[in-house]
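For the sake of transparency, this paper describes our internal protein records without simplification. Because each token names a local backbone shape, the row as a whole describes the fold. One such record is reproduced below, unchanged from the form in which we store it.
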Amino acid sequence: MKDHLKHRAVALLLALTFVFGIFSLKLFQLQVVDGEEYYDKATSTTLITLPVTAARGEIVDRYGRPIATNRQAYNVRLVKAMLPDETLNETLVALIQIFTANGESWNDAAPLSTTAPYTFDTERESAVAKMKEKLGLAQYATPQNVYDQMVKRYELETVPAEYQRALAGLRYQMEYEEYGLVTPFVIASDVSIRTVSQIKEHNLDLPGVDIVEEAIRSYPDPTLMPHILGSIGKIDAEEWKTLYKGQTGYKMNDLVGKSGIEKAYEKQLKGIDGKMTIERTKSGQILSTNVVEEAQPGDTVVLTIDKNLQAAAQKILENQIVELQKRAEANREPGPGGGALVVIDVKTGGVLAAATYPSYDITTYKTAAGYAQYASDETLPLFNRAFKGLYRPGSTFKVAVATDGLMTGTVDANYTLRCGGVYTFWSDYQPKCTHVHGNENAATALRDSCNIYFYDLGRRLGVESFNSVAETLGFGAKTGLEISEAAGNLSTEEYFNANHKNERWQKGNVIQAAIGQMDTQVTPVQLATYACSLANKGDRLRTHLVDGIRTYNFDELLQKTEPEIVAKLDADQATLDATFATVEEGMLMASRTGTATQFLGNYVYNIASKTGTSQNAKGFYDATIVAYGPTEEPELAIGAVVESAGNGYQLARMVRDIFDEYYAGKNQNTEIASAGMLLG
């Protein structure tokens, strides 16, 4: 028994010795024979995680037709983890040489001229101040002081002189955008295939330079409603501190909406970035690239806009203004300035078209030279007159006064007042009418735009009463648009006394307010909203631009904007029916035989309209108009203004042209809708 146990112990000892021997041999091979190879592998490869930028959601019209889309482009970026600091300037010089040879631009927004003697960009005072602060200079520092500090700060003394300014701008931009281990720097966007090929050919000589294919904004028609679309741009330092820092999914150099729909729907349009890993050797060789999280594109914003009608509205407005300008020039008279034309769907409150003139091209605006040109243009092409322009409504306001008078019973449809050309109620203040109209009732007074009738009715009602009706119908308050708009204001004693130094509110101010003068200021979109409320018999719908939100591929509806009544006139239905029967009769008469008869008198559709003429701050007269129709079953509501154009009747042609365009395109749009492209 003892011998048996002894043999087993010897066998176990031999087995253990054999196993330990094998381990020792393997360790010797790993540490001595192959040690250097494995050490290099362990210490010379780097795994880098970088973001994969998600495609921005697209913007389409109500029928799914593209307005702001995406296309694939090549961007050149620097990845800090792959680019040694000691070779940074050398690499940048090599890239500048390639970019220059191929006519590419690069990411340099430093507000300093590109050639000596150096000057600051006077259009960007705040950017100049920030640059001085970031470089540690006093605010009185000269452009040359700034340049010298950049050369010193970024160690450019040994860089060839012809490249120093370019590198100074790039290095400053990199610092400004917080280039770092987790934040690559896009040095050039949308470069050519030739540039891509040359960079790839010199890959080993350009450490840290990465070519990425990303979606960038594209505009099928860059002149189509740029004020509504808005712009996108990189998050600046101030935005980062106040809006985006700490928000999930945002990086310092991300593109975000800066204005318009792009800004209002930033959350929906921005997708979710993915992640990729790059394994790189010490020598710069890429061993592997793997997408570990796929990017998710943003959602599609579907507008209420009819793309074709929008394009037509822009052309109609431009043609009208240019013709009036030529006529004024021929007569050696002051010509009209800008203007706006807004069309609303009566049934939903959705904006079908909103034209501003003069306007601009988004692609030109995105360039530094283009922006500078637009910004310095005295005609203000960047100003959204349709939503922010403030104008006296003139005689279009009389419809609200008539509505108030009829609704409250102050007058009825048969009540008449004689117009003798002068309002004689007061002995010391007797304003005039444009003509001697004779006996006028509510409908004929609207047809003839009789001041005397509305002076008297306004005096009897009082400014608080008719202002309340005007506000309910759409004046003096924001309409509900998703993007920035002006609220305007109504004429009141309080407003007058606060804004007119050395003057006090007088009794005559009430009757001037009643014909749309005084301090009342409205936007063109408010005029269209007002017309829409009249068409809906006193119900004001929220005016809006977005019909809904769909997934990027358009196959799922995420959000739908339903019609919303935001204000109603306070009267029983019978009173409202009687009131608007008379108001509509007067507005229809204005089109057929009154102020708008030249263009709407024999028109195939029955259109209710009211024109206006109001004095502006320059002492000239703005032309205004509101209209809706067809009166049998209204579909469109229109509001328009042309600055310093004179009598509002001239704008009736635009109303006619809009209805022509709308019905000409209606069959095609119906076919698109029946094919399932509408939101439903």
